[in-house]
């Protein structure tokens, strides 16, 4: 390998060294995209803040860090409600007797198969944690997988609401939030991910996921900063 | 928080402690899903092993680790060709005068805007790196974004080829490979990601991405192990 | 035009005359595609046989011809149930407070706006007509538009059930049935449309729709013949 | 049946008779949706005006009526170009060695299998008929099936161009045009179909298709009227 690199370097003056490109990459991971955010074109997605993940001690799938962000998520939800920014909730729940779940989902290690007692009452009702209860008229999407857009009408709903920007909060950062962010990005949405209103089950992966999202998919910022941006442009 | 947890604990005997759930989660990150892999139902996806990422020193987007996996990717490609496992290549390239690119892509830090000289010859032709040149008749999909399934006919192609399993190799692990893995998972495919035949620009994010994929989306294994599994089931 | 045709004819011996091509086209409209139908790979879709369209006199959207096919649809449903061919029902109904309806739907003449008293109880509950009530465990998909695949998980459900063939019956032939047939065709399904178990509000359009479907999208046959084919291959 | 109807009628005063509903339906088939059309939000889709369908005598798939609308299509294309309304062309052509074609397409009667000499040069290059040649910079989408949206990035392109309205012209009315209209409708676009700038191989089916589209999917109008509407709102 080293020889090849050296050879290439000899033949060409205009060139990027390994150090050049790694520095560029490293720097980009610490930066944020910049795009204009218009509150009247924005919706808030509250991802999977449901009892299974948030209610303390209830299930083996409980994400303690998700319980810890509830207050901040609530503040963001309340802010959006006051500003007429639509709040849309999702939950991983029963849809069509589970017949629409991705085919290999049941094999995944995160199902804890054989490790915890089977409990078919989990991930069925998709009840949103009581401190974050949806209000009458707010959309709740029960979804069969991680991403909120696949096999659901979320994009149509956002179109009908005239929204081209989504703020993502909820859990788990590196599963449902991250997948939803990627899907929103590909569908042409401006995506904002709240760094302190998303939660996962491993602090290192929280950071890793946010780095990847920030470099290529989404603006990542703490919720106070998101509110400030919305406030300024409102 | 602690008080709430304690309160809940008092009221209920059957309960999961914070330590319980974090241990379960940590363990699951180190495990792999298990599902049957049939060579005659499998396709190999070689993601974005194109000059822009692989050719040493050519662009600021060069991923040195991608250059380093070429030999192993080649071995996997050759194995699949011998076994009549279809090999499908993708490249991030010009499609429809770039008019189909996700709307916010240009704002992302990974475009290095203002940091490197603009060069419109990049990501236009989608030339696969010469050591991995597609053979006559092998499908090459030029795609407008990270994921190989969105806005492309990849799923139709796999259906027509009778494949329900995809092996993913290429670059960048936490962008095009990871997004493609998530999309394949949601479309019901069995997904296998090669741990030593994927590459990115940050070793920690390589590991982080594989951990997330392994826990919830894909079987993650070194290429030698993937070949062994295919061989055994062939 | 005639001159141009004549000119072209002079220059080239191998050529198709206007009469040739129109005869070929006309003949193809009267033919059927042929493909193998395997009962164990087939599902029955019962499209929108809901009170709004079927229950006599209840709504201005009542389709009398739909009421007339109930018995034959029932026979087909019963046959499929006996043979363990999954029966999937759809209904045009409330989903997400109607926020996921196609944006221009409300403007369409088939909504009879201003012509009939507004009745918000229509197309909300999606109750399947009582003679065709779904059984416990049978999938019912509430959909926001004509096509049963768009913005719904129908394709995932069919994948999970291992089905590559769909039989379509229900109403209206040239709206929900026809759109669903086109969508199934494009997703690679073998499509069978029952000529005497579909119904619309205009006999000429019933025939016209079936002609178009038969030439390019689906096998079109009376229900007795569909049952015979399933029986033979069972 | 009659008895059931009578019975229902007796029980309830507010009711719709068979005559009522058929009259409502018949009337709706002759009407048009009304929605606002903004030229700066509109794109023109020229569907499959390619040599295979338009060039006189060349293939058995020639649609003489398509050749006859060329002048009017040209006028519409020229008008849109003058007004900076993007013109997007589609063609049914080779994409990925035909591996992405819907699985049952080859079985359809409209392929004329066994009736005409096989000619693999058809539907490969997707050459637009010379009188309608796309200009430099105009998008041409080669598609594997009837609908212009499925497995193509057409929706992303329209989003990027800021278009929420599409005008559809081209051929065949009841295959590629009609399917594209249905897909555009479901994706939330305002759809306008040109009645004298679409063509098919059977005059009755031309009318039947336009009736169905007009009642539930699209505004249908002659091209002179479409131009007048654009002019008025320009």
In a nutshell, what does this entry contain?
With 234 residues, the first copy, chain A, is of the alpha/beta class. Chain A is built from 9 helices and 6 strands, in the order ααβαααββαβαβαβα. The first copy, chain A, is globular and about 60 Å long.
Describe the structure.
Chain A has 234 residues and is of the alpha/beta class. In chain A, 53% of the residues are buried. Chain A has helices at residues 2-11, 18-29, 51-54, 64-68, 70-82, 154-160, 173-186, 203-216, 223-233, and strands spanning 42-47, 87-92, 140-143, 165-171, 190-199, 219-221. Chain A has a six-stranded parallel β-sheet with strand order 3-2-1-4-5-6, with helices on both faces. Chain A starts with a helix and ends with a helix. In chain A, helix 7 runs parallel beside helix 8 (203-216). The interface between A and B is large, with 76 and 76 residues.
How would the blueprint of this fold be written?
Four copies of one chain form a homotetramer.
Chain A: H1 2-11, H2 18-29, E1 42-47, H3 51-54, H4 64-68, H5 70-82, E2 87-92, E3 140-143, H6 154-160, E4 165-171, H7 173-186, E5 190-199, H8 203-216, E6 219-221, H9 223-233
Parallel strand pairs in A: 1-2, 1-4, 2-3, 4-5, 5-6
Helix pairs in contact in A: 7-8
């Amino acid at each position: 390998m080293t020889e090849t690199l050296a050879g290439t370097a000899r033949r060409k003056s205009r060139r990027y060294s390994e150090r050049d490109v790694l520095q560029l990459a490293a720097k980009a991971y610490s930066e944020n995209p910049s795009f204009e955010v218009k509150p009247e074109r924005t919706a808030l997605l509250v991802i999977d803040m449901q009892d299974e993940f948030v209610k303390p001690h209830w299930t083996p799938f409980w994400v303690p860090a998700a319980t810890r962000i509830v207050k901040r998520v609530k503040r963001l939800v309340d802010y959006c409600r006051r500003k007429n920014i639509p709040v849309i909730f999702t939950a991983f729940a029963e849809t069509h007797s589970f017949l629409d779940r991705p085919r290999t989902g049941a094999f995944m290690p995160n199902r804890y198969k054989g490790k915890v007692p089977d409990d078919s009452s989990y991930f069925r009702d998709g009840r949103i944690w009581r401190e974050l209860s949806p209000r009458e008229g707010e959309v709740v999407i029960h979804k069969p997988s991680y991403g909120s857009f696949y096999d659901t009408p979320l994009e149509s709903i956002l179109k009908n609401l005239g929204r081209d920007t989504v703020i993502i909060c909820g859990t788990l950062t590196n599963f449902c939030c991250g997948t939803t962010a990627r899907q929103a990005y590909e569908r042409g949405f401006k995506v904002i991910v709240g760094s302190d209103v998303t939660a996962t089950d491993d602090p290192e992966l929280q950071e890793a996921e946010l780095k990847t999202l920030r470099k290529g998919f989404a603006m990542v910022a703490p919720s106070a900063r998101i509110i400030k941006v919305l406030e300024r442009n409102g």
